[in-house]
Amino acid sequence: MPLRILFLCVANSARSQLAEGLARRLFGDRAVIQSAGSGPAGVHRQAIAALAEIGIDTSSHRSKSVTTIDFSTVDLVITLCADEVCPVVPARIEKLHWPLEDPTFAPTAKVEARFRETRDDLERRLTALGHARGLIA
Questions:
Q1: CA 132, 47, 111: angle at the middle one, nearest 5?
Q2: Is residue 81 among the annotated active site residues?
Q3: Catalytic residue among 5, 6, 8, 9
Q4: Does residue 137 fall inside a structural domain?
Q5: Catalytic annotation on 11?
Q6: For an engineered disulfide with 136, which of 63, 101, 120, 130 has Cβ 3.0 to 4.6 Å away?
Q7: Which residue range is the domain that position 80 belongs to?
């Protein structure tokens, strides 16, 4: 049975969207991937661009609210909030917290670079998780 992973942050526009796109590529059919946020704000164009640079098309992704998630379909929640308050999830679900700064808060001249850094950080973390959980051979 595939591991059912939910990535959560506030806006579901940057970090969780990057994580969703990367996890889908890394884990394939060995995991069911979702993302959501407490205040969905639309997918940031730089998140789409950062993933497109490495061959992942997320142009059809949409921001989703955590209130639309059926938590009975989730095995693992990975929260990505740093200084913000992350959405609350049921206690019975396994949780990991990866506090990452929101790249949308970077100074304008550094936003593109910050998205790449966040993408690369998430890819390293997801690769390690994938090896630890047997999702990557």
A1: 110
A2: yes
A3: 9
A4: no
A5: no
A6: 130
A7: 3-132
